Each structure stands twice: as C-alpha cells, then as structure tokens.
Amino acid sequence: MQTNKIKKIAYDKIMKIFEEFRKINSFSMALIKYGTFAALILLSLGISVLILNQTVLDYNSYTKFVATMIIKNSIVLMAEFIIGGLVIDYFVK
C-alpha cells in the first residue's frame, strides 16, 4: 500500500516534468534537439577513436588523450545546449 503511494507520487512528478518540457517554444526545442544530436555524434566519434586506438591501431597515448578530450567536451557541449535552450526559453517567456 505504501509503495503504491510512493510510485504514484513519483509518477506524478515525472509527468509534471514532461508537461513543462512540452511547453518549450520551438526555437529552444530545436536548439536542445540538434545540440544534443551534435554532441552525441562527437561522443560516438570519441568513443570509436578510443576503441580503435586500443584494438585495431597501434596504441598511441596522444590519440587516447585526444579521444578522451573529445568525449569530455561532447558531454560539456550537450549540457551547454540543454541549459542554454532552457535559459533562452525562460527569458523569452
């Protein structure tokens, strides 16, 4: 009985978040959508370079450094696009 109430409260909170995301204007939504897409492309590029460096190519510490920096920067880039889109939406409204 107690767990059902907790699940319902958690479900209601998640649905409130989804409702607020549906109210975002089209420019901010496009910024978040395409920025996340670009960041995920960079993330997959970094991961593939890292895997190739350790398996197929001759191991090079500089290539590993570049791949990890691409991965880290793609995560930061994704966060910037999401936060930037939300801030723009906040100030436009």
What key attributes describe this structure?
mainly alpha; 0% strand; flat
What does this protein look like?
The structure is a single chain. This protein is an all-alpha fold and 93 residues long. The protein has one domain. It is 89% helix and 0% strand. It is built from three helices and no strands. α2 packs antiparallel against α3. The longest helix is centred in the last third of the chain and has 32 residues. The mean pLDDT is 90.
Write the layout of secondary structure elements.
Blueprint: H1 2-22, H2 26-55, H3 61-92
Helix pairs in contact: 2-3
Global structural class:
mainly alpha
Give Rg in angstroms.
19 Å
- Note the main sheet: none
Termini separation (Å)?
Answer: 41 Å
Tally the helices: 3
The gross shape turns out to be flat
Give the uncertain stretches in residue-range form: none
Would you report the number of β strands? 0
Which percent band covers the strand fraction? under 5%
The topology string of helices and strands comes to HHH
Query: Which bin fits the share of residues in helices?
Result: over 70%
**What is the count of distinct domains?**
1
Mean pLDDT: 90
Keywords: Membrane, Transmembrane, Transmembrane helix
Transmembrane segments: 31-53, 65-92
